[in-house]
Design a protein that fits this description.
174 residues; mainly beta; five-stranded antiparallel beta sheet; PP2-like; Phloem protein 2
């Protein structure tokens, strides 16, 4: 077991591409992410990521996978996660999984329940699948332009496992 149980994000694992940001597994803060009893995190060097690599959840009762990035003012963004399940996944049916985001440490959270995780396929898909999850433009005079976002299931206390987090994308819109 690692001396520190949580994985701290490696900013070098965020790929910036024409205003979009792609978060690879090491770009996330993951609660219990440095403990091999709970998570399997790829250790690939950046930028040589294999597209199939994912942070793989072994088992947790507290799911918290988060990232952050500084946004451009006056620009809308969309947030999505590329996820899949292992064949032996468990504990997800009816679990209240949320995608949450806010701008600035003191910002107000926007959230969306991800019902897709009740029946997530084995092949990776982008979530949410129905409506997009957008962040409205921030004003240029806002002092903290940092976006804080993540996947959360911290309410049920149920043990769950088998989730694969391939990446998250913060996409610049129009």
């Amino acid at each position: 077991m690692a001396s520190k149980s949580h994985q701290d994000a490696d900013p070098n694992a965020i790929i910036a591409n024409e205003g979009d940001f792609i978060f690879k597994p090491k770009a996330f803060n993951i609660v219990w992410g440095n403990d091999s009893r709970y998570w399997r995190i790829p250790r690939s060097p950046i930028p040589e990521y294999d597209e199939q690599e994912a942070a793989e959840l072994i088992q947790v009762s507290w799911l918290e996978v988060t990232g952050s990035v500084k946004l451009e003012p006056s620009t809308r963004y969309e947030i999505s996660f590329k996820l899949s399940f292992r064949r032996d996944s468990f504990g997800w049916s009816g679990a209240p999984i949320f995608l949450m985001a806010k701008v600035g440490k003191k910002g107000k959270y926007k959230w969306k329940r991800l019902k897709e995780l009740d029946n997530l396929p084995k092949d990776p898909i982008m979530v949410p699948t129905d409506d997009s999850f957008t962040i409205e433009p921030i004003l240029s005079n806002v002092p903290d332009k940092r976006l804080y976002f993540g996947l959360y299931e911290v309410w049920s206390g149920k043990w769950k496992g088998g989730l694969k987090v391939h990446e998250a994308i913060v996409r610049k819109l129009g």
